[in-house]
User: What shape does this take?
Amino acid sequence: MNLNNTYDYAVIGAGIVGLSTALHLQKQNVSVVVLEKEKEPGLHQSGRNSGVIHSGIYYKPNSSKSELSIKGRNLLVEYLQKKNINFRQEGKIVVDNDLEKVREFIRKKY
Assistant: This one.
């Protein structure tokens, strides 16, 4: 890497969040450099997670966290399909005794 280069953005860390951020910035036709202290990407938190994409069901309905979880999941599935990357979609059973919460859950198509 040439340290005399100038970039519009510097992203610190080559994990899933850093690389995703860099990819989206690059699509906006800006120059991006990713700085990673390790020899390979994904050697810290991204390499140790459980591989689960959260659906947002444990957050308050219609909260930013809930809505962003849903949007992020949909964007990830769309990206994987577009790039022809194999993945498994598996379900989860959540039991709730509040019928309105169950209906909202179904409406959002988790």
Notes: Residues 1-49 form one domain. The two ends are 43 Å apart (CA to CA).
